[in-house]
From TrEMBL, chain A:
<keyword id="KW-1133">Transmembrane helix</keyword>
<comment type="similarity">
    <text>Belongs to the binding-protein-dependent transport system permease family.</text>
</comment>
<keyword id="KW-0812">Transmembrane</keyword>
<dbReference type="InterPro" id="IPR050809">
    <property type="entry name" value="UgpAE/MalFG_permease"/>
</dbReference>
<dbReference type="GO" id="GO:0005886">
    <property type="term" value="C:plasma membrane"/>
</dbReference>
<dbReference type="InterPro" id="IPR035906">
    <property type="entry name" value="MetI-like_sf"/>
</dbReference>
<keyword id="KW-0472">Membrane</keyword>
<keyword id="KW-0813">Transport</keyword>
<keyword id="KW-1003">Cell membrane</keyword>
TrEMBL record, chain B:
<dbReference type="GO" id="GO:0055085">
    <property type="term" value="P:transmembrane transport"/>
</dbReference>
<dbReference type="InterPro" id="IPR000515">
    <property type="entry name" value="MetI-like"/>
</dbReference>
<keyword id="KW-0472">Membrane</keyword>
<feature type="domain" description="ABC transmembrane type-1">
    <location>
        <begin position="77"/>
        <end position="271"/>
    </location>
</feature>
<keyword id="KW-0812">Transmembrane</keyword>
<keyword id="KW-1133">Transmembrane helix</keyword>
<dbReference type="GO" id="GO:0005886">
    <property type="term" value="C:plasma membrane"/>
</dbReference>
<feature type="transmembrane region" description="Helical">
    <location>
        <begin position="77"/>
        <end position="100"/>
    </location>
</feature>
<feature type="transmembrane region" description="Helical">
    <location>
        <begin position="144"/>
        <end position="165"/>
    </location>
</feature>
Length: 316, 297
């Protein structure tokens, strides 16, 4: 029995070596990318151990004192930041998903309804443009609107005889501003994906519906929307899988490290970054691990849903 | 009935025009605002605030910037251009090779390789372990490589490209193999030329990512000589934000030289200048590229 198992394994190993030898060139072509992943994704996994230690530079990752779950305890119970940053991350992402669904689909549908070629060209160019800007640039633009002294919004308020607001010191406005900025930046890009799906629709269905007397509203409601559903479901599930990940660049580019707005806009990612500087590597590693595990759970769930809806084809 | 139907159709068309027009304006307005402020005179902006038409049109801000910090900006430009060029070429080489290899259906372990890639987007070690490894083992602090290597391979782009490569009929490869070509030759003689759209689209995505990146500089760079353009702008703005929040005591605020409003907006325009310039040429092409890649199977 044992011999046979051994034989089998050797044979299999030969098979592996033979396969690699046969397709040497193809495997070599994969190598650079795999090395990058090894360096920047797989080797860092060893650092997860830091979450269970009190890391100091001298003793290194594995020499530092083991503290069990203390870092997690502090995050969830000690300073109760867990609730706040998770709440901020989820709220911002949920609204981004909702508007990121409604607006790009509307753009794609309305794009089909307008006729003027020039109008189409100009509007699509305009809508796609924000995608090309970095969050730092978006931050500069947001500043142009909400700066207390010279910002556009306050100047308009002055003209209307209203009090000026010091936006950058008032936390409650910033979740909506950030959500708006995100929708502003991504809608044009995402609408293209829906347009691609619509380009593949069977035109004869729409002609038949028209002959049967369906007006445009009905055609959109009973044909276009149901046919867009699979694409929308995949995109939504992809974002649900990433719902525990805040967009660091977006938050930091727009708000920076403005301490008076921190309560309202600190998401898990920005909290990891800022606590790295103040509360140490071990603590922030623990938060990162919490985020990765929640992310893994949600990706698994949304993948299951995707399989159910898409006849066995998952997201990954 | 007939009239009612055409009325509702016309209503829908009107709504479509309004929605598209309005959203397009919302998308462009901030940019025009930024441009016009950068072309205004500082004095007028201080009095009237930002507005959509330049007030007291002047190029003084741009002249001022190039006279006072021209060297710094040109240097940052140089860094950004270098990082974008080298990064994009390197990333394209790495990404096209692996996407081509795993698009070959006879490659036995291609699913294993795809899984190794996939797993990194599903589960990650998090920021801190990544940072520690980069700093302690790879010594990326204040190295220009820190701006290139960490983002040189994107799994998403690989999957996009794999879709393109998988459209190529395998019979083409077989024919080339009979003629004595090996897979590397097939890759650059057959596969690459056939997937030009996909490669250029992904190349643009990488270029955009490198041009707009300031995350790697935030993590690894504190030597001002290595600041890329975006990070240069970020630093100007973050000083301003700290002061606007009112948390910096006014005495201290007085000591920090506040970059003038027009300067901030002019630097913003300088940062996105090449994008504005190239946008008309790449836009349509980019849209086609994404549309083709987005349609699976």
């Amino acid at each position: 029995m044992i011999m046979r198992a051994k034989d089998g394994r050797i044979k299999k190993k030969n098979g592996l070596l033979k396969e690699i030898n046969d397709n040497k060139i193809l495997y070599l072509m994969c190598l650079p990318a795999l090395v990058v992943l090894l360096l920047f994704c797989y080797i860092p996994f060893t650092g997860i151990w830091m979450a269970f230690t009190d890391y100091n530079v001298v003793d290194g990752i594995f020499g530092s004192k083991f503290v069990g779950l203390d870092n997690f305890r502090y995050f969830f119970i000690g300073n109760s930041m867990a609730r706040r940053v998770t709440y901020n991350t989820l709220i911002i992402n949920i609204f981004c998903i909702i508007f990121g669904l409604i607006i790009p689909i509307s753009i794609a549908i309305f794009f089909n309804e307008v006729k003027g070629k020039l109008f189409k060209k100009v509007t699509q160019s305009a809508m796609f443009f924000p995608y090309f800007l970095s969050w730092v640039v978006v931050g500069a633009i947001v500043y142009g609107f909400f700066s207390t002294d010279v910002g556009m919004v306050n100047k308009v308020r002055e003209t209307l005889g209203l009090d000026t607001i010091s936006w950058y010191a008032t936390p409650k406005y910033w979740k909506p501003i950030i959500i708006f900025a995100s929708v502003w930046k991504w809608s044009g890009y995402n609408s293209i994906i829906y347009m691609a799906a619509m380009a593949g629709f069977d035109a004869s269905l729409f002609e038949a519906a028209e002959i049967d007397g369906a007006n445009k509203f009905q055609r959109i409601l009973y044909l276009t929307l149901p046919m867009l559903k699979p694409t929308a479901v995949v995109l939504v599930l992809l974002s649900v899988g990433r719902i525990f990940y805040g967009d660091f660049g977006m938050i930091y580019g727009i708000v920076g490290n403005n301490a008076s707005l921190a309560d309202a806009v600190t998401v898990i990612d920005t909290y990891v970054y800022s606590s790295m500087k103040t509360l140490g590597f071990s603590y922030s590693t623990a938060i990162g691990l919490y985020q990765s595990i929640m992310g893994l759970i949600l990706v698994t769930i949304s993948n299951k849903f995707a399989k159910k809806i898409n006849d066995g084809e998952g997201l990954f | 009935m007939k009239i009612q139907k055409s009325f509702s159709d016309r209503l829908l068309t009107t709504i479509a025009y309004l929605f598209m027009g309005l959203f397009a304006v919302i998308c462009l307005y901030p940019l025009i605002l930024t441009l016009s402020v950068s072309l205004s005179s500082e004095k007028n902006v201080a009095i009237h605030g930002y507005s959509i038409l330049p007030q007291g049109f002047s190029l003084n801000t741009y002249i001022y910037i190039f006279a006072h910090s021209g060297k710094k900006i040109l240097r940052s430009y140089g860094i950004t251009i270098f990082v974008t060029a080298v990064g994009t070429l390197g990333a394209l080489l790495i990404t096209t090779m692996i996407s081509f290899a795993i698009s070959v259906k006879t490659l036995k372990y291609r699913n294993v390789i795809a899984f190794l890639c996939n797993f990194t987007i599903i589960f990650s070690a998090g920021l801190i372990p990544w940072y520690i490894v980069c700093i302690n083992y790879y010594h990326l602090r204040n190295s220009i490589l820190a701006l290139i290597l960490p983002s040189i391979f994107s799994v998403w782009n690989m999957f996009l490209l794999r879709t393109y490569f998988s459209y190529i009929p395998p019979s083409l490869y077989e024919a080339a193999k009979i003629d004595g070509a090996n897979y590397f030759k097939i890759y650059y003689k057959i596969a690459l030329p056939l997937c030009k759209t996909g490669i250029l689209t992904v190349g643009l995505m990488y270029a955009l990512q490198y041009w707009n990146d300031w995350w790697n500089s935030l993590m690894f760079i504190n030597d001002k000589k290595l600041f890329p353009l975006q990070y240069y702008l970020y630093n100007i703005l973050s000083n301003v934000n700290a002061i606007s929040s009112g948390l910096v005591p006014s005495g201290a605020a007085a000591n920090i030289a506040l970059p003038a409003e027009t300067v901030k907006m002019a630097v913003t325009i300088i940062t996105i200048g090449p994008i504005i310039f190239l946008y008309p040429f790449v836009q349509k092409f980019f849209i086609n590229g994404i549309m083709t890649g987005a349609v699976k199977e």
